[in-house]
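EI: anyone free to look at a 150-residue chain?
SC: sure, send it
EI:
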Amino acid sequence: MKPFHTETVLQTTRDRVWELLSDFSLYPQWNPLFPKLAGPGTVGSSHEMVVHLPGIDPFTVQATLDVKGEGGLSWHSVFLGRPVLTWTFSSRIRVVAPESLEVRLDSEFRGVLAPLFRFALARSMEEGMEQLNQALRRWGEKGNVRCMRC
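SC: here you go
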């Protein structure tokens, strides 16, 4: 099934954006799509993730964290068993020049119910991913991430 996909170019460093994406305690301050993420922060472990898609009440999913090389995070959730519905959300950072990088976001549903979920959530998912791109630009291109902890 075709994933939802966005790319945005930011004028900042890889380390700055990686810190935003990998420090889950900062999510409530800047991340409109995943305003809460609780868990141990280790690869392969389960995390409680609140998803807030535009036009839909926030809902909670259990998601497993995977790190995809340098600059990539992936979340995987299984609903009602693998053959029925799974959801994967990933972000990847690619440096395109000094102080310039591309962030790619992908969201994909798989399983028997995937076409229904893709259809039902298409507009909200696309808007939510665009809001996440805007938040990455807003927070990624300005000052030090540590200031968010103040």
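EI: The two ends are 43 Å apart (CA to CA).
SC: 👍
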